[in-house]
Amino acid sequence: MRWLNLQRTLEARLASEWLQDSTTSRGPFPPINVFQQGEDIVAIIELPGIDRNDLHVHAQENTIRISGRKAVDFPEGVSVHRRERISGEFNRTLTLPVQLDPDGIKAEYRDGILALFLPRAESDKPRTIAIK
Amino acid sequence: MAAQQELQVQQKREIETKEESTVPARTYVPTADIFEAQDALRVVLEMPGVEKTNIDVTVQEGVLNVRGRLDFSKYKNLQSTPSTTSVIMREASGFQARLIIIKSEQS
């Protein structure tokens, strides 16, 4: 049941859409895919063109927050033919339905993909009970 | 005073590849910025997930063709989460490709 809430967060659209242009928006930025690797969770986030200094990942209890700034800079005196890349600040929070082990969280940013490895807390893992 | 607009994810566009492919793969269209400086035409493409060694750039008859291969093999051992509708990368590979037509000054 708690996983359903996560799924809703991943697919969420902003509540009021009337201020946005309806052409290209599709959910909060950045897009995240959440997978399971055994008992642990892996989050794959698409973040092309981010400076490492402008990227922050915070973990608190079972919440992960990804924030930062995406800059698109043009050199001086150029004429722009086409502009498609978006820029601005982003701030996305993901609440996971499992308890995480904060010391084991690993983040890797490579080729425009931020990969988060979120291990599950030992106390949260299911335990087999021996039957006497 | 303009309010700060929240960043939105752009919908990923897929293209139908006309050529025959031996591997089931999706081709996505990367977002591009094209601008012209004094010395050259600059094209910047956002292709997340593509390694440098997997990029192919060709220019032929005024058409710039950029093709990057996505390697999903590292996702092979990942399972989807219990709410079964999350995205799973079933295919072994995918592409990010874009064709840009450059109008040359010479006839």
Radius of gyration of chain A: 18 Å
- What is the beta-strand fraction of chain A? 35-45%
Under CATH at level 1, the class of the domain at 1-9 and 32-72 and 86-127 in chain A stands as: Mainly Beta
Provide the succession of SSEs of chain A. HEEEEEEEEE
How would you classify the quaternary structure?
heterodimer
Shape of chain A: elongated
What top-tier CATH class of the domain at 24-81 and 88-101 in chain B fits best? Mainly Beta
Biggest sheet, spatial arrangement of strands of chain A: 2-3-9-8
CATH topology of the domain at 1-9 and 32-72 and 86-127 in chain A: Immunoglobulin-like
Characterization of the model:
Chain A is mostly beta strands. In chain A, a hairpin with a 2-residue loop joins β4 and β5. Chain A has one helix at residues 2-11; strands at 25-28, 32-37, 40-46, 55-60, 63-70, 79-83, 88-95, 106-110, 113-118. The model of chain A is unreliable at 14-24 (pLDDT under 50). Chain A has a domain at 1-9 and 32-72 and 86-127: Sandwich (Immunoglobulin-like). In chain A, the strands form two sheets. Chain A has a four-stranded antiparallel β-sheet with strand order 2-3-9-8, with no helix packed on it. A three-stranded antiparallel β-sheet of chain A has the order 4-5-7. Chain B has 107 residues and is mainly β. Chain B has a domain at 24-81 and 88-101: Immunoglobulin-like (Sandwich). Helix content of chain B is 0%, strand content 50%. Chain B contains no helices and nine strands. Chain B has strands at 8-10, 13-15, 25-29, 31-36, 41-46, 50-60, 63-71, 79-80, 93-101. In chain B, the strands form two sheets. Chain B has a five-stranded mixed β-sheet with strand order 2-3-9-7-6, with no helix packed on it. In chain B, β6 and β7 form a beta hairpin. Chain B starts with 7 loop residues before the first strand and ends in a 6-residue tail after the last strand. The model of chain B is unreliable at 83-91 (pLDDT under 50). Classes of the chains: A mainly beta (132), B mainly beta (107). At the A-B interface, α1, β1, β2, β3 and β6 of A face β1, β4, β5, β6 and β8 of B. β2 of chain A pairs antiparallel with β8 (79-80) of chain B.
